[in-house]
Fold this sequence. Notes:
Blueprint: E1 3-6, H1 15-26, E2 31-34, E3 42-49, E4 52-59, E5 62-66, H2 68-73, E6 82-90, E7 93-97, E8 100-104, E9 109-113, E10 118-122, E11 126-134, H3 135-138, H4 142-147, E12 151-153, H5 158-172, H6 179-198, H7 202-208, H8 211-225, H9 234-240, H10 245-251, H11 259-276, H12 285-291, H13 297-308, H14 312-317, H15 319-322
Antiparallel strand pairs: 1-3, 2-5, 3-4, 4-11, 5-10, 6-9, 6-11, 7-8, 7-10, 9-12
Amino acid sequence: MALVLTTASVPDGERLAYWRDAVGRALVPMAVTARHDGPLEGRVSTERLGCLRIATIEADAQRLSRTRAHLAVAAPAPAVACVAIGVQTAGTATLVQDGRRAFVGEGDLMVYDTGRPYSLDFPGRFATHVVHLPRRALGLPEEHLRRSAGIAISGTAGFGALLVNFLTSLTASVPPCAPAVATRLATGVVDLVATLVESRDPDDATQDADPADHLVLRIRDHIDRNLGDPGLSPQTVAAAHHISVRYLHRLFEGEGITVARLVQRRRLERCAQELHRSDAPAPTVSAIAQRWGFADPAHFSRVFRAAYGRSPREWRGARDELLPTG
Length: 326
């Protein structure tokens, strides 16, 4: 039976937090950034078919980012990490992984590995089906999996068209069936994806790589690892990577966010996550703010309220309300 999570009945000020949790439950834990100012609308459903986990997402414009910090919290061992196959049914996306940047059009496939950092940027309202396959089920060498991650495949011709048609039919309405039948269907999907990965030309991996994209990923990782340093700034980030501040800003022109705003957003996300926890004894709000690089408690409270619609103390007090049911 499908699990369905939707923002339809969630108060506007709580939607982003609810949606972040919903995406994490349906897919994997990720940072979610809305691409517009209004309340985010989204619906995600997920169900199982044998060893496959299938999710369908319809939502407003947003950016999804899975970072090393997410992997560190619940690092998936190779035996349980997944390869994800996405079918873009409406809207477009930009997938970034391993220094590759792929534009995904309506009707295209995208392939990525949930065991390594990646980002998905949806500039407008979109719909997509995502199938998670355990890497161990594919039984392929690591180098084959790596050269096939962070790519888009046209769904209009060749093997891509065959796979898109099959996955679209399967994910649009997962059939109720006996466990043995579900296993056979899942095995068919795994075999098709394994064929796709094995047919990937090794030379394509080097052709797809863009040094600037790889540098952006390194910078994002550096920021995540140094959020607790109150001196973290565009100047220190540029110096750490031996580039000018001007070139740093140019690198992030296509990222939809400045470096300074990214640092603040990632710090706020870490604080919000820690305030959401129910550990006892809980650290003070001021201690949490300082841990993630906010030297001024008053400034932290102002930017937190601007981002989440509640003060840090109100957010902590309402954490039980913010957890979705079902």
